[in-house]
Amino acid sequence: MCCRMMRHAGLSNETAQLYIVGEVTHNRKTGQTLLTVVKEGVDEFFEGRIVEKIVTSVRCNGGFSTTDDMRRHEAERIDPISVPYHEVEVFECPPNRQGFAVLVMLRLMAGLEAERFGPL
Q1: Hey, what's the torsion of the CAs at 42, 43, 44, 46, to 10 degrees?
Q2: 14 pLDDT band (50/70/90 cuts)?
Q3: How far is 59 from 54, CA to CA, in rounded Å?
Q4: Considering the chain, what percentage of its residues have pLDDT values greater than 70?
Q5: How many other C-beta atoms are found inside a 10 Å radius of the C-beta of residue 106?
Q6: In 24-62, which positions are buried (b, 16+ CB within 10 angstroms) versus exposed (e)?
Q7: What average pLDDT does range 54-72 have in this prediction?
Q8: Which of 17, 77, 98, 99 is the most buried (most CB within 10 A)?
Q9: CA-CA distance, 71 to 89, in Å (whole number)?
């Protein structure tokens, strides 16, 4: 039971295959989690039933996180950086996080007109 969600992450519920371009998916459990946080507050995420489920899943998959780790976590508010890509503005976290590399790649792809090669 504890590893079931991780085992199927990124797979279509219909076919147990990888999603195809344009396929629509719904993650009802994530939606329910977000609704719980909205209704009961952020403490429910870091100190309530949600954190217990997260830690159980992480530990079942070989991780070492504990509920205490989650309770002690403090988020840092940072201003995002962005680049235009086609008709959208793509936002990511600034260096030294991997989001910066994503933005660099998007800028390179825009210059190469990568869409002519089809879906990635």
Answers
A1: 100
A2: low
A3: 9
A4: 82
A5: 19
A6: eeeeeeeeebeeebeeeeeebbbebebbeebbebbeeee
A7: 90
A8: 99
A9: 34
Tokens for 100? Answer: 């910066």
What does the alpha-carbon distance between residue 13 and residue 31 come to, in Å, rounded to a whole number?
16
SS3 for the chain is CCCHHHHCCCECCCCCCECCCCCCCCCHHHHHHHHHHHHHCHHHHHHCHHHHHHHHHHHHCCCCCCHHHHHHCCCCCCCCEEEEECCEEEEECCCCCCHHHHHHHHHHHHHHCHHHHCCC
pLDDT tens-digit readout, 78-106: 899 999 988 889 999 888 778 888 888 88
